[in-house]
Amino acid sequence: HDCVQCKDNYFFQEFYDVETSSYKMSENCDICDTSKVQIDSDCKSCKSKNCSMCEQGNDSICRYCNVPMALINGYCYENCPVGYYQIGQDCLNCSENCSSCRDDQTCNKCLPGSYLFENKCVSECPLHTVADPVNFECIKCTQSECEKCNLNNTLQCYDCLSNYKLDEDSGMCI
């Protein structure tokens, strides 16, 4: 041994010597290639499937996935799960109650019990809209004077703004 100590991230690798039938330490300082991680005095492959680089000193937590896999909480996935969106290889949270989004500000679809309104998930649809319980979205009423309208016919009003009167026959605010 010429070297007695290795610099950071380098180590003496342990190997099995067939001649002496025992484990020995290498005489030179080694470093693991990027697809492996140093655990004690050995280079180990990442345990996480499709992982290209593990967390330093931990072969169970992935830091970088093979392209085009997505990383979330130290594991690689083919696609981000419901409620997440992908940027590069990272899966990031959609906004609250959102099941599918383009980014954290733009929701495309809400979880059941919430309704999509102006790219956000709301618990109740606001005035001038009606809740669609199948597609979980708020549909705008056709008439701007209409506070509540029919889901199957958004032209038909049930309630009008205070300075308008509902025509019962036509369902219009006048």
Could you describe the 3D structure shown?
With 174 residues, this protein is mostly beta strands. 0% of the residues lie in helices and 51% in strands. The protein is built from no helices and 20 strands. A two-stranded antiparallel ribbon has the order 1-2. A hairpin with a 4-residue loop joins β15 (129-132) and β16 (137-140). 19% of the residues are buried.
Characterize the quaternary organization of these chains.
single chain
Helix content: under 10%
Radius of gyration: 30 Å
Give the strand order of the largest sheet, numbering strands 1, 2, ... along the chain.
1-2
Order of helices and strands: EEEEEEEEEEEEEEEEEEEE
Mean pLDDT: 87
Shape designation: rod-shaped
Span between termini: 96 Å
The profile of the biggest β sheet is:
2 strands, antiparallel
Low-confidence stretches: none
- Derived from helix and strand composition plus strand pairing, the structural class reads mainly beta
Strand residue percentage: over 45%
